[in-house]
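User: Some background: our group keeps a shared notebook of sequences we're curious about, and every so often someone picks one and asks for a predicted structure to add to the entry. Today it's my turn. The entry only has the sequence so far, pasted here. Could you supply the structure so I can complete it?
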Amino acid sequence: MSDATLLVELLTEELPPKALPRLGETFAITIHKELVARGLADEAAAVRPFASPRRLAVTVAGVRTEGVAREVTEKIMPVAVALDADGKPKAPLLKKLEAKGIPESEIAKFERRMDGKAEALFYTSTVPGATLDDVLAEAVGVAIKALPIPKVMRWGAGEAQFVRPVHRLTLLHGDRVVPGCVLDLPSGRVTRGHRFMSRGEIELVNADAYEATLLAEGKVVPSFDERRANIDSQLTAEAARQQAQLGDYADLLDEVTALVEHPTVYVGQFEEEFLAVPQECLILTMRANQKYFPLFDNTGKLLNRFLIVSNMHVQDPSNIVQGNQRVVRPRLADARFFFETDRKQPLASRLARLGNVVYHNKLGSVLERVDRLEKLAGTIAHRLGADHTAAARAARLAKADLVTEMVGEFPELQGIMGRYYAQHDGEGEVVATAIEAHYRPRFAGDALPVGHVAAAVALADKLDALVGFFGIGQLPTGDKDPFGLRRAALGVLRILMETPLPLDLAALVDDAADGFDAGLLDAGFAPALLAFMQERLRNLLREAGHGAETVDAVLALNPTRIDQVPARLAAVTAFRALPEAEALAAANKRITNILKKADATPGAPDVLLLQEDAEKAVFEQLNALAPQVAAYFDHEDYTEALRVLAGLRSAVDRFFDEVMVMAEEPRVRANRLALLAALAGQMNRVADLSRLSA
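Assistant: Of course. Here's the predicted structure to add to the notebook entry:
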């Protein structure tokens, strides 16, 4: 046999569901890559990954029994080291040939060519192709080691290690078993299907029959993607029959796909009386604990029905449905108990308990943090002209739900339950809304807090964390960020930029620092924090599709009014489309370089010291345009400001053609440097245009 489909399958115990899609994809990609590297498969070969709760597998089409022979060129050594003046081999070359098993007669075939600055000898040989039988087990071993597995385990008496015990290994090339041993298991052609619905051991006839055989005899849909699509189709159809909606269910769909091999959807229900509990509690209970899909009406209100994705298909599903209903009922009853118990005690009365909850050993308790948040939120709201009393009250109560029964059981509901309990206590709607919203945005793409009061509390929460941890030297390192400071920084930036809010970031950092006890924070932490946030802003803008040079030009000015950044980016983008842009950017770069080399900081240019017509023209035109630029800048119309400045191009070009900046007479030289500094000051008010020049 020459070319045929290859099947590799590991039959395991239940694999970690959240990791399963990545495990399956990585396993397939790596095996294909290893086969290609050994000349046994083509880059364009059809690769089909399979991943189910109890198996990782892949089929690769057109795999060869023996790899194609290929030419390999390798550098032997520099000519000066290898050959003497007469071109005869020296001892180092002969020793190298012996080590590599290359006959001395092959020296005549060596190629001499330049390698950097020295001439070297190169040898081209034909390497026979690998055989599948010899290398497949090794390739599978490489694929196993490449899997993203944080922890491995051992089983039985052997030394094999994997994320879960592995019971069988299948290596089939066409209809032939490829010999090999992986994880102490010899290869074969026998697999198993569904734990309960399969007919038992299944002997695979050939690799091409793998998927169809597993489905027909093993009652397993081995493809993760097909299983996911199957479940999605069943869920959508059943929801339509129930005249209901599924809400946001993509994450749960992936997890459930990794838990079942033969999916079938059934409908369950619970007593309507549980709907008196906030629906977020019930939804979380059903999704997180039971892996059920809640159903909603057209307005998004929770119904007392849910969908079950079972791993069994039976004619009469009543036992399955009733069993799941029995399981979920106590969970819903717990949620109701927590909710009713919590409401017996006002949020405000829980604040004292926060004094016993440590926020950080250097930054105090959560209650001490609440004191800081209350003050900071009020200050930010005042800066925004918002209701600072409401902001302070919301910040005062924002963390109180952390010591409730419901949040103790379901930490994901912090903030959400605070809103419900605040409403029950008679707090104003603005306060209640801000309590929930102060955690936003919780993740990339999450909604921002709505309203200035909510934004003030959300900013206070994140700024207090950033200032506190940077102030005590607890900075993120590498991929480690235990206090979520990158997320907090992105939250602050998004709130300021996307709301937008006319607040100065540096002033906000100072406001937050004022809330900490004197001497607690390291002196000089603020520049490091602002630099950290600017780098987060750079990444955020690049991910949004803005060009690297445009972003660099804007951020080179270290803007702290983050709300103005989008307008500056738009202005620079529009400026770059102007015909004058390239020349002005180059001139700006030239000016920047000249000023860097100046001995002293230039003052204001003196009109009486202007000698050349070209420098007088720049001075006059700059003074004429300055009021227009200032007016546009004051109204944050940066696009028009740069458009006006583009009118300087002809005068600037003439200046550099006709004027010697570094004149011999010191006063004239200093005055020309002052003129360039004034020109740069106007041109770089929106962004550092020199960054746009190559």
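Suggested note for the entry: The chain has a mean pLDDT of 93. The chain is about 50% helix and 15% strand.
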